[in-house]
Amino acid sequence: MSKAIKIFSFALLFVLAACSAPAATPTPAEPARQLPAITGIPPTFTPLPPGEQLLPTQPVITVTQEPLPTAPTKTPVPFGDTAVELRYTIPELNLDRRLQGGVNSQIILVDETTGKAIKRANQAGVLLELQQALPDLLLTAVPEGCTGCVQVSYELPFAQEEAEGWLQDPTLLA
């Protein structure tokens, strides 16, 4: 290992000595070229004489737009209206809850037994899924004396659909 270090050191010294030696003959400098005087260059652009135009000019046409109407629209969006209302109860568990979704994509979940409510905004996807899934539910009449059955009722005001009955769908029950 030490032999390799000695060889490397010797080679490094040789390269440094070769690089530091001055050149044998100096290279002569080139004489500076004489640039032409600015007055000797012909003009590349000649302006048109006064009163002469290259393109014909046309008068400017101004467009005036009618002001937008300030009256309210005839069919405003009913953001306060309810789009979905779903209620489910399980009497044996003392569970009574109502889910109300509005046009403004806000969902309100109310526990009717305790009176507590939760609001969630920006729930358009959930409301859309509910509006598509609820009409496909098969709800049968609730059997008498079945206090452990999930009783569901829903209303879709814009689709003019409503139903109530016993929820037996295993996916929704989960």
Quick recap of the structure?
This protein is about 20% helix and about 20% strand. The chain is α+β, with helices and mostly antiparallel strands and about 170 residues long. The longest helix has 19 residues, at about 1-20.
Can you tell me the residue ranges where pLDDT is under 50 for at least 5 consecutive residues?
A: none
Question: How many helical stretches?
Answer: 3
Largest sheet entry: 6 strands, antiparallel
Mean pLDDT across all residues, rounded?
82
What does this structure look like?
This protein is α+β, with helices and mostly antiparallel strands and 174 residues long. The chain has a domain at 82-173. It has 3 helices and 6 strands; from the N terminus they run αββββαββα. A 6-stranded antiparallel β-sheet has the order 4-3-2-1-5-6, with helices on one face. A hairpin with a 5-residue loop joins strand 3 and strand 4 (117-120). The longest helix is centred in the N-terminal third of the chain and has 19 residues, at 2-20. The two termini are 74 Å apart. The relative contact order is 0.11. The model has no long low-confidence stretch (mean pLDDT 82).
Topology:
Elements: H1 2-20, E1 82-90, E2 95-102, E3 107-111, E4 117-120, H2 124-133, E5 151-156, E6 161-166, H3 170-173
Antiparallel strand pairs: 1-2, 1-5, 2-3, 3-4, 5-6
